[in-house]
Design brief:
Blueprint lengths: L4 H15 L8 H8 L3 H13 L3 E4 L5 E4 L8 H9 L21 H19 L2 H8 L10
Antiparallel strand pairs: 1-2
Helix pairs in contact: 1-2, 1-3, 1-4, 1-6, 4-5
Amino acid sequence: MKLSTRCRYGSRALLEIARSYGREPVKRKDICRRQDISKSYLENILIALKGAGIIDTMRGAHGGYVLTRAPSSITLLDVARALEGSQSPVECLENGRICRRAGRCVTQDVWREVKEAEETVLRKTTIQDLVDRDKKYEKPDYSI
């Protein structure tokens, strides 16, 4: 299933915050710059992630955004649910009353399998996994 830009950017924002986990809050402007996300778009994403209890804010000159728990305990399924809501590929899986064929529809079985497969991947992938994977994309610094 196709995840929205909101979910993709939210995952990247959490990657930036997770890089500083346990050390210091991350400023929104730094997330915007490092991940090439507009300030206004990111602000709405951060509000949703805070509302879901995934991040918190620290006020003051040295303030910014922090994770509310370890990056290894935040899954991409948590992020998707916070930013997308239902992960159902079809509405009838969430609300069987909208379809007269619900419960006896062969395609509904397939859509359920698709949903379960997607949720399995998102559930087993954590923000810490993103931090670890991102290391292979870092460019070496050869300056002296």
